Amino acid sequence: MVCKEDTMKCIGNAAVHIPQEWYQPGDVLIGGMASHSLYLFPKIEFHQHPSEEIFDIPFVVTKFYQHILTLAFAVNELNENPQILPNITLGFHIHDSFTNAKMTYRTTLDLLFKSHTFVPNYKCGIQNNLIGVIGGLDFDTSSLMAGILSIYKIPQLSYGSFQSTVSDGTHSPSFYHMVPNDDVLYLGIVELLQHFGWKWIGLITQDDDAGQNFLKVLESKLSLNGICSAFTETVPKIHRYTSMADIFNNYLNDIPLLLESKANAVVIYGESLSIRRLASIILRRALNSLTDFSDFSMEKHATGKVWITTAQIDFTLTTFLRIFSMQTFDGAISFTIHTKEILRFQLFLQLLNPLRTKGDGFITDFWEQAFDCFIPNSDQPTDVSESCSGKQKLESLPAPFFEMSMTGHSYSIYNAVYALAHALHAMYSSWSKHRVIEDEGRQAPWNVEPWQLHSWLQRISFNNSAEEEIRFNEHGELVSGFDMTNLVTFPNNSYVRVQVGSLDLQAPPGKKLTIKEDRIQWHRHLTQVPPQSLCNDNCQPGSSRKRKEGEKFCCYDCTLCPEGMISDQKDMDYCVSCTEGHYPNMVQDQCIPKVVIFLSFEEPLGITLVFLALFFSLITALVLGIFIKQRDTPIVKANNRSLTYVLLISLLLCFLCSLLFIGQPKPITCFLRQPAFGIIFSTAVSSVLAKTITVVVAFMASKPGNIFRKWMGKTLAHSIVFSCSLVQIGICAVWLSTSPPFPDLDMHSLSGEITVECNEGSAVMFYYVLGYMGLLAIVSFSVAFLARKLPDSFNEAKFITFSMLVFCSVWLSFVPTYLSTRGKYMVAVEIFSILASSAGLLGCIFSPKCYTIVLRPDLNKREQLIRKYKI
After folding, report:
1. Per-residue DSSP letters for 577-620?
2. Which one, out of 108, 375, 626, 765, has a CA that is 20 to 30 A from the CA of 699?
3. To 10 degrees, the CA torsion angle through 631, 634, 635, 641?
4. CB distance 605 to 599 below 8 Å
5. In this predicted model, what pLDDT tens digit does every residue of 70-108 receive, in sequence order?
6. How far apart are CA 23 and CA 91, in angstroms?
């Protein structure tokens, strides 16, 4: 085996020259593993020697060149800092993983042993004092590196973000994450979707273990939070091709549901390669629909979707996609690795020149593909039409190809270099207190073994040049957070990332994500901002969701709330009833307080009923006055004056007791009004019954030798009134002693009103009172009807018949009317029934007599009575 010092390579029979490396010597070395280039490896079909099938020109991911430059910048900055590792020079050795497992193993071993023959534990050439390795960008590269580095306990600081649930199986004490694990991103994504009400989303992942785990965990969390995936697509990793046609057929893999879906929010998880493939899909669709290439414009094919990317993804394009417009991704929201600008970094980038840079094996391919030119050298012809002048500036490149501001991955690399340097500085500072310094006062860093740094790395804590604290937690993960950025694109295919929020791991659940919505710039083709991403329109307040059979729960119909129920938010699963004292408004989206009502003295209905009660009371009192004044006249004496007075007084009290039903119910009014009405009315009806029976008995007693003669007189009438009234008094006494009426609130009968009413206490006793009055009325009507044709000039039977007919009609109508009304109108019906039935008795019985007494006094004589009787 022969070692060549100029390339630091060991060449054997099977060796292939890999130029992508950058070596800078130093007392101690920091290794780096970049993902700068992508070689296309064909399938091995044994038709020719495998080494001859490798494509010699790699596809350079130009944007990732910043990762390499950041490591070099950080090392040079440390070498200029006298406060850290004084008198010790840091060096670095950076290799490329080529995003390929075979090449990752090869370059990792080359980093350790400078050998391409894979001889373990053999170091070729200059002694290499490697203290740690920074890399890789993705999970696969990091895990492959860890398989080798963990054997030698060499600290590995990964600058890519990936899930801890996937990495746990390969985690070793030598492995450190320069970014937080992705588990917290699930919560951030869910909170972001909930913030904007996006419930119908698309999911795109790469086809590997990390992608499958992402789908498994995220979809369960989405389901728990009422969010559905409209589609789920995986992007296969492409490592091998059989031809250039196969390259394009696989690279432009189409996802049919992506652009046609109603899901306006699409979550993308994977590596930066996922964005390039997505851009290829959109570009291919635009080209397939093209009829005239001169009329081609990517702007016409913008999707107008909100792309949500996770921390591992960066918006990067390759030279194959120069015609792709980044405006397609305008307004994208990204969870990015936290970053801050570092002083002098942009100046470092601006001074970069491929013609003056020595030792950088990456810059040639980068410069040629980034600026589409050719750098002449001794191995290739110089008569190229367009050669690189070295005057090209990195700041002229669009952001998808290179960014001048430090990206999140670069910031992680910067912090990783400083973490190794501070750990080494802390270890040397501790040693200097116990060890005599030899060799002209210089420590011998080449005597340091990498495994000795672990105890210092695990407890390291320092502030970087951006004044941010850098420390690891117990799991070897950097204690930090994520930024939420918004992609703002420009017509020249460049963009800027505007920070619009942050994901703080230390914040309590539900508050980890903060969003500055006013800073977000949405895609210009969106017709609504913020946009909606729903399977169907929201169910507005006043309706509830009804699930569609056979579809996901995010797809539903909207049904109006049933009567008496409301929904006060969008997309409620069910309607709810209002609390007591409230009722739904017209559109059933909120509850409003009910109005307290009762039959008051101030309202028109109450005033009318009071007027009628007082008017009839006045009439009754006037009639009573007439009868008292004319008490000695034949017509008054012939109709039993005492019963007449009792009846008139009872009617007067009936009219007045109706006033107890008007006004806000009080305990005393509720206690008195129904029993008082029942007893007084029973007395009035009993008086009518007594008058009717008296007429019948008087007619029967007028016949000689009749047995009814002994019943004549006031005793019979008074006995009837007293006994009938006593029964009603007994019923009321039982009612008041067992379940008396009381003030109550009826909140349910009327939707918008609370009725202040008197609860009857016992409805059975109330109807007993009404039933007993009805019984007396029917008996009076029956007796009066039979005696209506008796030959008596002053016979009241016919008038009592009419009065009882009116009375029974009123109260028979009262029962169904009373039961069918609600609120204060129930009271009004009862008052009207009292007034109508009382007025019927007053009118039918006393109006003929008053007519005779007042207007025809000539008929109110004894001679007239005797004459008519004889006739």
Report:
1. EPPTTEEE-TTSSSEEEPEEE---SSSHHHHHHHHHHHHHHHHH
2. 626
3. 40
4. yes
5. 999 999 999 999 999 988 899 999 999 988 888 889 889
6. 8
Q: How far apart are CA 871 and CA 792, in angstroms?
A: 11
Q: Which one has a higher pLDDT value, 10 or 371?
A: 371
User: What interhelical angle do 641-657 and 604-629 show, nearest 10?
Assistant: 170
Q: Average model confidence (pLDDT) for the chain?
A: 80
Structure-derived torsion over alpha carbons of residues 779, 781, 783, 788, reported in degrees to the nearest 10: 180
* Residue 136: cis peptide before it, omega within 30 degrees of 0: yes
What count of residues does the chain have? 871
What number does CATH give the domain 604-738+773-870? 1.20.1070.10
Tokens of 185: 């991103």
Tracing tokens 């004092």 back to the chain, one arrives at 129
For residue 52, give both structure tokens: 């001859």
Q: Which residues contact 370 (CB under 8 A, 6 or more apart)?
A: 60, 62, 65, 397, 401, 402
pLDDT in tens, 28-38: 999 999 988 87
> CA quadruple 43, 45, 50, 53: dihedral positive or negative?
negative
Give the C-alpha separation, 140 to 461, whole Å: 29
**Where on the phi/psi map is residue 281: left (φ > 0), alpha (ψ -120 to 50), or beta?**
alpha
- Using alpha carbons, list the distances in angstroms from residue 597 to 162, 661, 714, 752: 67, 14, 49, 10
What is the rounded distance in angstroms from the CA atom of residue 209 to the CA atom of residue 166?
7
pLDDT digits (tens, 9 = 90+) for 150-196: 999 999 999 986 665 445 544 578 899 998 877 788 888 999 999 99
Q: Establish whether the linkage from the previous residue to 740 is cis, with ω within 30° of 0.
A: no
CATH, range 183-336+482-519? 3.40.50.2300
Distance between CA atoms of 848 and 841, rounded to whole angstroms? Answer: 12
For residue 229, list its beta bridge partners.
201
Give the 3-state DSSP-derived string for 796-821, with helices as H, strands as E and coil as C.
CHHHHHHHHHHHHHHHHHHHHHHHHC
Q: Give me the residue label for tokens 């700041």.
A: 395
pLDDT at 60 over 50: yes
Question: Which residue in the block uniquely carries the two structure tokens 């009804």?
Answer: 546
CB atoms within 10 A of CB 573: 13
**Tokens at residue 146, please?**
């860890």
SS3 686: helix
**Token duo for residue 101:** 């497992």
Residue 659 main-chain phi, psi, to 5 deg: -65, -20
pLDDT at 444 over 90: no
Q: Where are the domains of the chain?
A: 2-182+341-380+389-471, 183-336+482-519, 543-593, 604-738+773-870
- pTM here? 0.69
- Round to whole Å and give the CA distance between 168 and 146: 12
- Taking only the tens place, the pLDDT of each residue in 291-340 is 554 444 545 555 678 889 888 888 887 666 666 667 778 889 999 999 99
- Which residue, chain included where needed, has tokens 């296309």? 40
pLDDT of amino acid 858:
73
CA–CA distance, 823 with 856 (Å, rounded to integer): 48
Mean pLDDT throughout 838-852? 85
- Taking domain 2-182+341-380+389-471, whether its CATH number is 3.40.50.720 is answered by no
CA distance 629 to 645: 12
In this prediction, residue 157 carries a pLDDT of 95
DSSP sequence for 15-83: ------EEEE--SEEEEEEE--EE--EEP--SSS-GGGGS-SS-EE-GGGHHHHHHHHHHHHHHHT-TT
| Cα separation values, 545 from 45, 229, 565, 584, 829, Å | 59, 18, 14, 19, 44
| Number of neighbours of residue 187 by Cβ within 10 angstroms | 16
Would 2-182+341-380+389-471 and 604-738+773-870 be classified into the same CATH topology?
A: no
Question: Cα–Cα distance between 168 and 153 in angstroms, integer?
Answer: 17
The single-letter DSSP state of residue 477 is B
Mean pLDDT of 521-549: 86
Continuous segment of H or E residues that includes residue 408:
helix 408-432
